[in-house]
Amino acid sequence: MLEITDVSKTFFAGTVNERKALQQVSLTLAPGEFATVIGSNGAGKSTLLNITAGKMRPDVGRVVIDGEDVTALADHQRAAYIGRVFQDPMAGSAPEMTIEENLAIAYGRGQRRGLRLGVSRAKREVFRQELASLELGLENRLRTKVGLLSGGQRQALSLLMATFSEPKILLLDEHTAALDPQRAALVSKLTAEAVERHHLTTLMVTHNMDQALRLGSRLIMMHEGRVVVDIAGEAKQRATVADLLGAFESVKGELDDRTLLQ
Predict the structure, then answer these.
(1) Which pLDDT tens digit goes with each residue over 175-186?
(2) Where are the transmembrane segments (predicted)?
């Protein structure tokens, strides 16, 4: 479903600030595969997501989604293929619009736009059913402005909006990092349920090693723009945080404070 082939990306090339964010990274995800990506700051995780989403273009390499080469397509041109949830709960929805209006926009992702009613009675019933799966009572607040919701509620709504149209690829960019532990656990649970229910091919970036081990069927570790560890199946199920710390130490030499604290 996703093929990233020999992708490289360098920022500020030819200057004293030159940084190689990605170095000949190749990655293939099968349909329905859920991969978590970990690594220290500057490892290239977010750059990988941005290139997959079309927010950035690689210097070299190809991105193929479901057999179609999308390397040259901008992010809005890939909207029909990709759903994304950002770290900031405020980034995935429009605060001045109601819950049902936000959902209506997500519902039409990838479809032709025209002059028609944005929220119909039939759509409103679909929205209620989908919101009920969040178990947050939002199905009874369809006309509430999204800006009045808590961070956890907005992130849960953003997740629903990103998975609503069953995209080819779901990208999760540290989407629980800004939440308190209770809300983070809820959104993690909803994530696992949504991915399984819709059989979504998913790439999730996280700094939390425990979360990376609990979620998904595959774990990828990046360091200095390269994939240094890639485990799946029973090997991932058996892996522990201590194993990951050991692997990190072997490729990095010493760990940064954020990784140790997580």
Answers:
(1) 999 888 888 899
(2) none
